[in-house]
Queue: 2 jobs
Job 1
Amino acid sequence: MTAAAQPSLNPLRLRERIKLPRQHMPEQPADERARNFTEVNLGYSAELARREALRCLECEKPTCMDKCPVGVKVREFVRLIVAGDFLGAAAKIREDNVLPAITGRVCPQEDHCEGACKLCKKGESLGIGYLERFVADYEQRMGTISLPTVPPTGKRVAVVGSGPSGLTVAGDLVQKGHKVRVFEALHELGGVLVYGIPEFRLPKDIVREQIDQLQAMGVEFETDVVVGRTVTIDELMEEEHYDAVFIGTGAGSPLFMNIPGEHLNGVYSANEFLTRINLMKAYQFPKYDQPVVDLRGKDAAVIGGGNTALDAIRSALRLGARKAYVIYRRSEAEMPARAEEVRHARQEGIEFRMLTSPIEFLSDGKGWLGGLRCLRMQLGEPDASGRQRPVPIPGSEFDLPLSVAVIAIGTSANPVIQSTTTGLVTDTRGYIQADTLTQRTSRKGVFAGGDIVTGTATVILAMAAGRRSAKSIHEYLTTDQW
Amino acid sequence: MFRITEAEFIAPGIKRFEIEAPRIARKQEAGQFVILRLYERGERIPITIERSNPIGGTISIVVQSAGKTTHLLNTLNAGDSILDIVGPLGKPSEIALFGNVVVVGGGVGVAMAYPTAAALKRTGNRVVSIIGARNKELVILEREMRHVSDELMITTDDGSYAGKGLVTDKLRQLLDNHTRIDRVLAVGPIPMMRAVAEMTRKDHIRTIVSLNPIMIDGTGMCGGCRVLVDGRSQFACVDGPEFDGHLVDFAVLTQRNSSYREAEHRSMEEFRQELEPSFAGSLADAGCTQGGRR
């Protein structure tokens, strides 16, 4: 790599740059997109991308980069966009992030790079996510990805799970010359990127292309393998002779609310609802065989305030729901969802019922959901998370008529691997214990990262754990030191 | 892709397949199942593994035509392939020396009960098996079940073979005769499993049922297969599929398994009209089993 930073080619003075408005992301009109599964954001044109890139202040100390969990060299890649070298910009991102077309779409940039952008002080931050997406898509379209070739090390690594952490580990390690094989439990590769995040936010072709790239780089994939059942980690290491294993199986089991009526037909976990729609393509039923409940003309609600909750309710709307509610026990300020998703959802007509907590799923008398009994909440003293604790308002009970409810309140650790692997220590909640820097587990040669270590988090944090793991695995494989 | 090495109808609408799946064959234990998907646009369906050959690297499944997927599956033959098979899933059956065990299998449930009956027998239990079907032609695995049972009783609903009646009639007789029973395993349609569990409740005979809820991933990720057991949610794919029959809420299971009845019918109708105009009548004969595992 060339050590010297790309010189600035930006013809504008800093004062001029600050005055430029943030370039809007072209998007499908809200009333149209609320009825289809096509991507909401349409992407920058080259012209828009260059205009947006010109806004970058090229800070001496780029705080955006410090705040990126995987350390993307934002200033450098934006300079390359200004210079018109889009492929160079993509290659620059790829040094730190093997899935730019994905993070450019789903990363909560406001919590990371864009939140740290100095332009925020005067107005809106640089559209770093939009720019990342642009160059990744450009590179994809040109089909000219240049990858350095490295001599093989002869070491073999098994990666369990093909979600964001696993793909990152695979991409990073294969570039170091290690042989990597990724095992996936489902029939499709991508983990949460394909079963969880809907087409309208992250087209599956994009995920497919990113995986094809990894395949082109030499990563091997095997689907239909539930590690812990089909083969255990012990067997992978002892019988199939993998030198190291990375566990990136995701958070796993959906949490339910344990309130009456949860077994009624029409009550789903977000994982099931989204898996039916995204992975099994139930929105194309009967062209695809797996169905989801018929939502046409029905009222639906999601319980929860994260990205998954919004993905679920916006999917319900697209499947024809008449009314679509987000029910969240705190206020909008505490919602963990990406700001852009909240804005999009509101534009599409999703109704937000904040400070509302369900206490019972009501039957329609025929085994199906008929309504949701809720309590209104108010914010009280801060709780352990530092957020104000929602407290029920006495006597505030009310019933909301509903046919479909989706529970999106988080997940707990799936125990399949932990219970079948010797010497793997978990915490009291069943998550795998791994060192926060090296991602090493208690078992020699076994590393873990992503939601199975931290609990529910984001794509980019899983990728960051993947990066740390890859670095640490490489060290282990080359030094043999544990 | 998973290649089919053998395929034969063992009864009208019921086909037995042997499929190359070396990883699964190596690990399979009695009571476990696979989830398969036939083709790109196909649904995922769970099916119990009837037996496996770890050395030859094959597993066997027994499939009854019920919905679109099972119908399509049963058109496949040796040399054809199945796009995806994942497993072995679920907890294996609990196998120990219990003493006198009664294994009750109804319809295609006999194929699911068979590997557990065999394992129980191998462990030294005295196995009395009761298998039932609607008529003589639909009695399956009689020879295999006889081989792993100390005593085999057969019933047919219409009396066309062996004793006329239901499997529960035979169980009733055993109970009335004060036969010592230490454990019961019941696998079959929900009403049968429910009836067996009710029958053994009074005498506190430990009764295990193998549940067949709707399922998608089979790894505990989606929660679609949740069943109510002793008032608590359990996932049949990872906590089961076998549960204490005295604690299972069968009404909830029946109700949840009906969730997609309309969609299933629509799927089947379109499939029938578009692809196979000929088998209009054959469906009614096949005897639909509701729910996921078929």
Note: The CA atoms of residues 377 and 393 of chain A lie 5 Å apart.
Job 2
Amino acid sequence: MFKIIHAQFLAPGIKRFVIEAPRIARKQKPGQFVILRIHEEGERIPITIENSEPARGTINIVVQSAGKTTHLLNSLDTGDEILDVVGPLGKPSEIANYGTVVVVGGGVGTAMAYPTAAALKRAGNRVLSIVGARNKELVILEHEMRAVSDALMITTDDGSYADKGFVTDKLRQLIGNGTRIDLVVAVGPIVMMRAVAEMTRKENIHTVVSLNPIMIDGTGMCGGCRVLVDGKSEFACVDGPEFDAHRVDFAVLVQRNAMYRDAEQRSMAEFERVAKKEAEDYDVERACAVASASRQGDQQ
Amino acid sequence: MSTTAKKSQNPLPMKERIKVPRQLMPEQPAEERAHNFEEVNLGFSPELAQQEAVRCLECAKPTCTVSCPVGVKVKEFVELIVVGDFLGAAAKIREDNVLPAITGRVCPQEDHCEGKCLLSKKVKPLGIGYLERFVADYEKRMGTHVVPNVQPTGKKIAVVGSGPSGLTVAGDLIQKGHKVRVFEALHELGGVLVYGIPEFRLPKQIIREQLDYMRGMGVDFETDVVVGRTVTIDELMGQEGYDAVYIGTGAGLPQFMNIPGEHLNGVYSANEFLTRINLMKAYKFPVYDEPMLDLHGKNVAVIGGGNTALDAIRSALRLGAAKAYVIYRRSDAEMPARAEEVHHARQEGIDFQMLTAPVEFLSDGKGWLTGARCVRMELGEPDASGRRRPVPIQGSEFDLPLSVAVIAIGTSANPIVQSTTPGLGTNKRGYIQADETSQRTTRKGVFAGGDIVTGSATVILAMGAGRRAASSIHEYLTTGEW
């Protein structure tokens, strides 16, 4: 069991947990992730590590509600426990002094991009960060990203905060301005990573993306996380999760990630049905309790 | 005095023993079991066990024991069954094998003890596997595992991986008085015994009981630790103060065929398919959260001819597959699967497409599998494995309609421990180099065995390596000599 020391929503549906996991905290490096399981019938899901504090023996993870498991996870609070947390998994980001690095974080992907941006900054790079979200509320880790970036650009799809548009608009501007870019690191939704890859491919800018395929064990056994890289099978859990964006077949990634969409929707619908019923039962119980209390009051 | 000179307790004269037929294992009827995950074999009664045991010829040179990777004293335990001392028989097996309820079920006896049984020259071999299983189950029913009492040595050993090889090392070393802690990457203990081998062949309850027994002997277990990531071998031997480490991390990543369409939705590796079913219980979705594709009324094929392939396809059948095929590029004679499993699979209605190989997976144009284009093969000259090489027959292509295909053609080395342990020697294929007798690696105090050394093999071979490693670790810890 892994204890939640602190839990806090960063944005609607996006929660940060500080978890007691001393072994993982000692070893975590930027770019790595954990797999967790929250109850005996639970699935194993890969989750981003945002940060760790080895001295305190804690790791920070950032979770966005998407399906049943992430909804359940985000219903946990300070003092609760998580059944299994294993990691840090995957190869760490390759940190070196490349020169100028553009770090792109899309949505909750920003949490994965942040430790890499910080490490790149520490390694002496000029770090230009672009953070994108659907709207103002969903912009996360702005303060943290600003602290490790020489410049931070923010976009929102609806223009409710900072500049309206997509992260690729900012990247296009940088390229158009003639900014020298030695490396682009992009973490976020597949469509975003693919768009970044297509843009930098033309410019011949080395680009790294962090992939999040379907995964079970995460330890190099099951092969579920295979991705097509240069026409060959590679495994995100041991060969990745970071890959050269220009070699990744994003179409296959999109297709394989949709493999269980029906099941995921069914699971979520069932979860919502049960949650709704419990809430209704609770309301009925409370109504009964209130009614009986008032009756007792009458009698007195 | 050697036991051979002792008067036999077996009442039957030698000539009569060969006339007793090999007792049949009671099993669930094929048509029933094809739709459930209950164990296929039901086990011997004491009467059946004794009836089988009297067939033993009590050879002066027991080839069964010699050919057993862990050296079980077959003749002696069988004689104890003859006289009705079933607990004594179990204790006798435990001297050499800490997992008898497991090996009695999954060991390929035809390649070891039973394959070398003298009876098999004339009639069917002694049912050694069935007898081993019987005494292990009997002992469990009686609840009388004897936990040995030993003097602590003060030495600490870390075992990496809780599969058959790691459990064997742990079981042997704890009985020598060492402290043993087993690290497991997954959330559940047992390695391939839990994620790979299905319930109908090895009930998980058996493994849980085995683990309880080992806990009772004092073995510590820690799940959710990926050695190489969560903690390194160097840290185990440094900060954590272990005197020796045994690496038994098991089978690695699945191999694929590199044919077109392998990335279609509906194409699984056997490891993923079986992990979803056995470890994650995906077939109980949505009670369990892990999903898998619905197999009801679907055509499913497995590619490969080993135990993993048969486990996968027989699971698919139990999950409602309308047609369940084994596609294997060689012939019956070359199939590496256990004979009993092939026999059971045929009884259950698995369709074996022998001398056949897929050349392409076919798509519906939207990313989903619709079938496999296959080619028939014929056997040519022997290849590097000594088996006759399958050669495609020109113009024999045909399409097999499929919704799910499971690839079970083997695995390659998991790189995590090797890539994070400086100085740990590996071979060309990335497996850990270990001495065949001592299981020593190129790093002082570090031993390895099982699939991470040999590549995919069997439970009993992994246990054999564990056995050798345990004795060699004990010697190293006692003498300090490397």
Note: Chain B touches chain A at residues 185-187, 195, 223-226, 229-231, 250-254, 256, 258, 262-263, 265, 269, 271-272, 275-276, 279-281, 284-293, 367, 414-416 (CB under 8 Å).
